[in-house]
Write a structure and sequence with these properties.
132 residues
């Protein structure tokens, strides 16, 4: 059976009763904490969440925080850099990921840096890196 969780801005008791009587399995009124929604999803859908460990700020290796420079891209052919520039200009994250996969593994800092920029939607930064 399909599970229905009502999410509404109405917080009156009669609204909750009406939602449950009309077939909703659960009722959440705004404002709500996201944990409330996750708890309901877990309960009704049998979900179990696995949370990533948070890395305390200031604890990342200094090298992983280093900003990329245009010189970092020079390990790749000029045609690849041109493709990277075009993909960044077109905001084509799929093509950017494909290009990142072409970087040799020994250039892990470049791989990680570009992945971080793509994941953070920093397409303008990637475009600027290709300008040199």
């Amino acid at each position: 059976a399909t599970v229905i969780i009502a999410l509404t801005a109405n917080a009156f008791q009669e609204d909750q009763v009406a939602a449950l009587e009309s077939g909703c399995d659960a009722y959440i009124a705004k404002p709500f904490a996201e944990t409330t929604l996750f708890d309901k999803l877990s309960r009704y859908l049998g979900l179990r969440y696995i949370y990533a460990e948070e890395i305390p700020s200031g604890k990342l290796p200094e090298e992983s925080l280093r900003q990329l420079t245009p010189q970092d891209l020079q390990v790749m052919p000029a045609a690849w850099i041109a493709d990277l520039q075009q993909a960044a200009q077109m905001i084509d994250d799929i093509r950017l990921q494909e290009l990142i996969e072409q970087i040799p593994e020994q250039n892990s800092q470049l791989i990680d840096g570009l992945k971080r920029l793509v994941n953070d939607f920093q397409f303008e930064t990637i475009f600027q890196l290709t300008q040199s």
